[in-house]
């Protein structure tokens, strides 16, 4: 018999991917904000 993922397995995989993508977006946004603030401080100082 083939290994067929159950609906629960699929939900868990989608949840895991959603969390990982959210973390990547949050990290990228934070890095961008830090870069912009650093640039503004450099220009102002």
Number of helices: 1
CA radius of gyration is 20 Å
- How can the largest sheet be summarized? none
State the end-to-end CA separation.
68 Å
Unreliable runs, pLDDT <50, ≥5 residues?
Answer: none
- In N-to-C order, the SSE pattern is H
Strand content: under 5%
Briefly note the structural class of the backbone: mainly alpha
Helicity level, as a percent range? Answer: over 70%
Shape: rod-shaped
Question: How confident is the prediction overall: mean pLDDT?
Answer: 94
Question: Overview of this structure, please?
Answer:
This protein is mainly alpha-helical and 45 residues long. 84% of the residues lie in helices and 0% in strands. The protein is built from one helix and no strands. It starts with 6 loop residues before the first helix and ends with a helix.
Task: Walk me through the topology.
Blueprint: H1 7-44
Short description:
This protein has one helix at residues 7-44. With 45 residues, it is mainly α.
List keywords for this structure.
rod-shaped, 0% strand, 1 helix, 45 residues, mainly alpha, 84% helix
